[in-house]
Amino acid sequence: MVDLGRTRIELWCVAPHLHIPETDAAQLQQVWTLLQERELSLACLTPEQVSYPVNIASGVQRLRERSLQLFLRAAEVCSELESPLLFLTAGRGYEDEPIGPAWERSVAGLQAIAARAAELGVSCVLEPLQRVESNLVTDVQSLARMLRDVGSPALGVVIDTVAMAVAGDSINDYGDAFGDRIRHVHLVDGAPAGHLAWGDGSMDLRGILRDLSGLEYQGAMTFELFGDGSYALEPRPAVEKCLDAFAVGAAGPRASPDKQRV
Length: 262
Known about the structure:
single chain, 5-stranded parallel beta sheet, two-stranded parallel ribbon, 8 helices, 7 strands, 13% strand, disordered C terminus
């Protein structure tokens, strides 16, 4: 990231570098030192979630409690690493049951996490997932309902451009529903799914950036590159491709590339 001119990053918390449930003071100090040596700061801290037994809506009490403890610890890690944002998703309910009980479990979990984060001076952001990933918060409508039910000013919104496109929503739909509660963006190409490097999908980057500019969005935008797994073998070319596409798509006086934002 330093070689690519970045000064802020979104830190994905997975083993071996930062596995939240096993993170101790020594490991946090090591991560902090690595950041400081490179003059990097965190825009957002993103614990592992979604496809694993990290699920604050789980109907299995021990899994739900362990998941909640992970995020409460993650709020502390945010504070210690000076990350302003903690990234959250709503979890998932059983597919063969009504969503009501899982929704209530998710609301309770998000309330507890947001309250603890607020005590530590950290804001939380909630991302809708694709329907294949969750049956709770998957679009603007369900996200608005979840924010209303949680009722915490410390809980903001993530726009993930792939989840947005899969749901049939738009940047302007998010702007109309949430305004300045939009605090983080996963800026990623897709067809419409896939979480691809820009140019490997079919989405309109220039239009997305234009609409974000119209919302006067000033937060971070990060690339979340999953693809088919090949990016993991050669990550730098994929990131460079995204940065080059951003520079072209953002050409103009109101949306010039910003080292602080991507």
